[in-house]
């Protein structure tokens, strides 16, 4: 079962965590198709038929992105709006092309995990913040497989920084692959 990783990072070249994760996945092209939306669609004109065909070739769909304003970067939202069309993903006489596919998220958060707790700075855990993604997956009859998260990235720069060292970065890449392997 091959996994499509839809990456929505508007500045991947300056990302440390997301870029490291992609480098890890690219070591295994037989398992993962890495699809970078901001590279594929710099003009934001999404080729819907191409995207739908790409999804149809994979059993697992992972949306990878940095958290922006408690959601995804805007191109990912547009991608979902454009690609998950009536008649293809849902609706009467639909092919329900997402049906039984695993859908998961892989995210980087700029703050600590504790900040996403009821007692934390933001008062809501990521499970609640990501409820729209879970509902979308259920609506199109896919299986929502939760998320993988790396916290504390706002202080990360190339290499080691406050609270995140090279060893943690490498471990996160391995843990991410483990998370993806469990989707099958």
Automatic annotation (TrEMBL):
Gene3D superfamilies: 3.40.50.360. Pfam families: Flavodoxin_2. SUPFAM superfamilies: Flavoproteins. It is an enzyme of class 1 (oxidoreductase). Keywords: Oxidoreductase. GO terms for molecular function: electron transfer activity; FMN binding; NAD(P)H dehydrogenase (quinone) activity. Its EC number is 1.6.99.-. InterPro entries: Flavodoxin_fold, Flavoprotein-like_sf, KefG/KefF. This is General stress protein 14. It comes from the Bacteria. Residues 1-158 form the Flavodoxin-like fold domain. It comes from Serratia ficaria.
């Amino acid at each position: 079962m091959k996994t499509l990783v839809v990456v929505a990072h508007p500045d991947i070249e300056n990302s440390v965590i997301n870029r490291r994760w992609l480098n890890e996945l690219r070591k295994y092209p037989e398992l993962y198709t890495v699809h970078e939306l901001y590279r594929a669609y710099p003009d934001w004109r999404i080729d819907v038929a191409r995207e739908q065909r790409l999804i149809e070739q994979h059993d697992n769909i992972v949306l990878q992105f940095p958290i922006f304003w408690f959601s995804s970067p805007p191109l990912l939202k547009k991608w979902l709006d454009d690609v998950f069309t009536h008649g293809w993903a849902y609706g009467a006489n639909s092919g329900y092309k997402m049906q039984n596919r695993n859908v998961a998220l892989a995210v980087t958060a700029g703050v600590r995990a504790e900040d996403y707790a009821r007692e934390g700075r933001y008062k809501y855990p990521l499970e609640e913040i990501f409820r729209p993604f879970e509902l979308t997956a259920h609506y199109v009859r896919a299986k929502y497989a939760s998320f993988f998260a790396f916290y504390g990235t706002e202080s990360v720069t190339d290499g080691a920084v406050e609270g995140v060292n090279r060893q943690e970065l490498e471990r996160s890449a391995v843990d991410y692959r483990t998370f993806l392997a469990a989707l099958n």
